[in-house]
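Support reply, case 0932

Customer input (verbatim):
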Amino acid sequence: MKILIADDDPQLVRALRITLSAHGYDVVAAPDGAAAVALAAKEHPDLVMLDLGMPRLDGVGVIHALRGWSAAPILVVSGRTGSADKVEALDAGADDYVTKPFQVDELLARLRALSRRAVEASVSPAVAFADVTIDLATKTVTRAGVRVHLTPTEWRMLEFLARNAGALVTRQTLLKEIWGSEQVSDSGYLRLYMSQLRKKLEPDPAHPAHLITEQGMGYRLVLEP
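Our regenerated output:
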């Protein structure tokens, strides 16, 4: 799997290149945002890892540029810890966000999750966790082999999370996808429908292991807790 690293810190890029290469990744790197977009167009990476504070074109600008033509998962690795920066990057089209400094084990785990998602999205219309199977082709959900009835809104919410399994989906993104940005702005609707989904799908709804709330940001469907 080919990873594009876009970061203007040469020492960090060097360390990441050594670490990721040792784990079997093919690494290409760009020192700024404009170079990252050009290199992505040339190399067609399977996954992109980028910083937000880059010269020439910042990380959010790179995300917008890539999302115009590429569906490759994007992992933001940034020193910006504010929730506003995270939400902006995720709403622009990033799939996940890790703050600097980070643990290498956590970074590798996030990359594995995004790598699986990239492969599964291209070959399988079904997403499974615990005893639940979500068939995106037939728009059906089964639990232990038994069909689960979902309301249209519950299905739209679950479907979007399933198509982005492993990635953090912001509340604003879900509201826009389900109701349209001009119609609903109250995330209380999301809490209500998430509660209903947990009752129908989680082994222990009071302690969810798969339909996870990321406090202050959004939700994540975790296939393997």
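We compared this against your earlier run and they match. Two observations from our side: The chain is about 45% helix and 20% strand. The helical segments are 10-22, 33-43, 59-67, 83-92, 104-123, 152-163, 171-178, 188-201. Please reopen the case if you see a mismatch on your end.
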